[in-house]
Specification:
Strand content: 5-15%
CATH superfamily of the largest domain: Aldolase class I
Distance between the termini: 25 Å
Oligomer: single chain
Largest sheet: 8 strands, parallel
Structural class: alpha/beta
Strand order of the largest sheet: 1-9-8-6-5-4-3-2
Shape: globular
CATH class of the largest domain: Alpha Beta
Number of strands: 11
Bound molecules: flavin mononucleotide
Number of helices: 15
Mean pLDDT: 95
Length: 337
């Protein structure tokens, strides 16, 4: 794939999201708690997208140092992500004190007021995005003042709702217009970006694709499982949350159907009883690098990923491919060629 250079930070696919977030390409890294690192975030931002650091579960005292690491590796915009259910307000304060350019939230309880979180981030000078898996939450986030809505379909890796990206994105676009929408869930290449733009989104957010890159902090075996997956071997389950002891508001986890899943599927009641014992077994397997006996989360788009490559290559390939589809294939369809 040829190296492309675009003029003055304006990419070949320029949307409202590029202006809003100050990025060259309309491509965002999902802020995956525990699966993103300052190095991965900086790599995505340096490639012209928006890197996002997942901060859920991080100690407030560690947050300034993590953000400093991003800033020492890129001068481009980046974001930080918080899951709102069970959020640690001290962690949010620690992040906002560092003035991150973008703050992205997701997964609030139904009775949680989003506006104070949006307002606090705005007051710190950040652009605010909010990830939803359905139309009611999209309306709620737009009413709270979010600057963009991420519509995440059930194909995606990690915690997702039950509606697929294809119907969800245009429904959310219609519900929150003129607030811009970023499509997520099952997108790993330029075909996904072109399709998302056609559905009315102004950009895409990718998780699984960026997990299988050279800069991703995941264990080599995790990256290889994504590469080896044909995309048909994931399932939606509550098993990872039962083991972790958390109730996720409205989500199931898209998880690799490995030996661990096979062992516990259909035995959830027993897993509830033996949760602490099984959590210890999972920790031991993880420490030993035995990834067939731990819950591993990734999306159906693993079937579109066949190599571990640098982040910059992922971004430039996606943009080139999407542009070619829009210019050539779609243009020809109109021209009848
Ligand atoms: C391992 C893993 C952890 C994730 N953690 C978070 C998180 O902490 N916060 C969040 O907003 N989204 C999280 N997500 C969801 C991603 O941000 C993104 O929406 C999803 O990966 C998109 O689907 P894709 O994997 O098909 O690209 C996670 C996803 C994965 C695979």
């Amino acid at each position: 794939m040829p190296e492309h250079r675009w003029d003055s930070g304006r990419g070949p696919l320029h949307t409202r999201i590029c202006d809003l977030l100050g990025i060259t390409h309309p491509i965002v890294l999902g802020g995956m708690g525990g699966a993103t690192s300052p190095g991965l975030v900086a790599a995505v931002s340096n490639a012209g997208g928006l890197g996002t650091l997942g901060l859920s579960g991080r100690r407030p005292a560690d947050i300034p140092g993590l953000i400093e690491q991003i800033r020492s590796a890129t001068t481009d915009p980046f974001g930080v992500n918080f899951l709102l259910f069970g959020v640690d307000d001290a962690a949010v304060d620690a992040a906002l004190a560092q003035k991150p350019p973008v703050v992205t939230y997701a997964w609030a309880w139904s009775d949680q007021d989003l506006k104070p979180y949006v307002d606090r981030a705005h007051a710190a000078g950040a652009i605010v995005t909010y990830m939803v898996s359905g139309v009611p939450d999209a309306r709620r986030a737009a009413a709270a003042g979010a600057d963009a809505i991420i519509a995440q379909g059930s194909e995606g890796g990690g915690h997702v709702g039950l509606i697929g990206t294809m119907p969800l994105v245009p429904m959310v676009v219609s519900a929150v217009s003129p607030v811009p929408v970023i499509a997520a869930g099952g997108i790993a290449d330029g075909r996904g970006l072109a399709a998302s733009l056609a559905l009315g989104a102004d950009g895409v957010l990718l998780g699984t694709r960026f997990l299988a890159t050279e800069e991703s902090p995941l264990a080599p075996g995790y990256k290889q499982a994504i590469v080896d997956s044909d995309g048909h071997d994931t399932t939606l389950t509550e098993i990872p949350d039962l083991v972790g002891g958390s109730i996720w508001p409205g989500a199931l986890a898209r998880t690799w159907r490995n030996d661990f899943l096979a062992e516990w599927s259909g035995r959830e009641a027993e897993l509830r009883r033996r949760r602490r014992e099984v959590a210890r077994q999972v920790a031991t397997a993880r420490a030993a690098g035995d990834l067939r006996h731990v819950p591993l989360l990734f999306g159906q788009d693993a079937g579109l990923i066949d190599s571990i490559v640098p982040v910059a290559e992922v971004v430039s390939r996606i943009v080139s491919e999407a542009r070619e589809i829009i210019e050539q294939r779609l243009g020809k369809a109109i021209a009848g060629g």
